[in-house]
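Collaborator request, handled under Task 6.
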Amino acid sequence: MQKLVIIGGGFAGMWAALVAAREADVAAQKLAITLVAPDDHLTVRPRLYEPFTPAMRAPLRPLFEPLAIEFRLATVTAIDSATRAVQASTADGGSLSLPYDRLVLASGSVQRPLPVPGADEFALNVDTFAGSAALSAHLDRVLAAPDSEGRLTFVVIGGGFSGIELAAEMRNHLRQKGDEAAARAARVMLIEREAAIGPDLGAQPRPHIEAALSACGVETRLATSVTSITADAVTLSNGERIPCATVVVTTGLGAHPLAATLGAEHDAQGRVVVDASLRVRGTDGVFAAGDVARAQVDDSHVALMSCQHAVPMGKHAGYNAARDLLGLPLREYSQPNYVTCLDLGDFGALFTTGWERKTEQVGPDVKALKKMVNTQWIYPPGGDRAALLTASDIDAPWPPAV
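Structure tokens returned to the collaborator:
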């Protein structure tokens, strides 16, 4: 039986496995599909700026078992594209060698270290489930500590999508912990090295973002970077020293280091360059999807590191890898429609359409849409085998029409 191995249990990897299983079922042919990942849960990363909840993860095994997808709990350490084998280590110190006929690399992205003294020791992140949990535990300690200078000052480094959402929601983190007085008294600061907030979000929505941050009581420092972080303060490039007990970094995503091990072309973020079918250029038998792949969504735009692009890319990679093995025609990936829904805390949310990010709706009413996206649309499908196969149709619409 031919073997399809998928690396990564995020949005792209999960959907690649499900769609591949469906294609084999539709073709009434057998494929040995194995997904290997260091966690048997999908982390819903777009939610990690929110107050922490265990529901930010969803189990993978109930999806895979009905479709006979083998799950291996292990960390991939090497890809040998010459012999077509994946090497991995298990939590108990063991090792695995997984041969493949086709491979889908969907190992995602990681937050690159902030090259600032003290960042590794004192800064937190909301890039991983563990990071979000650590921030929550840290806030518990801060709220329980005696009052001191900077105790209720919260500094967020990076004024992009995640930084804006976290800063706008920070007071709600404190409210969720039952401390309304702290939520009102908190000083929240957002540091951005570019001259404008949300530099990649475009000029049109910026006035709404600025108004929302102001309404949420978020101070901004623009055209400014952090030069050092200590346990009780950050120092900025303008010489300002800000006493604070909490620093969260939301900058610097790059492709997972596994991408660098492939003898392929990479972009500035470390992503492997793929063709229209999501094959890795220069590496036979390997497809890539999600944050680890540089793919064109249309003639002018490249997919972003977001679940909005990871889901359809994962579906196409699984579809194409499976059909390549089954001797069936492949399908080119494209994704011309692009939307954003940015959480703006108590102000509401902002919904934009198109790559020019045309503002369609902003304010409290959009918050319900954001909640639906975060808690329903991006979660794995449910149900029995038949329901999972139906949900895994590559032509099933995603995201739902808004």
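The cover message to the collaborator said: "Residues 3-111+253-337+381-391 form a domain with the FAD/NAD(P)-binding domain fold (CATH 3.50.50.60). Residues 33 and 68 are 8 Å apart (CA to CA). Please let us know whether this matches your experimental observations."
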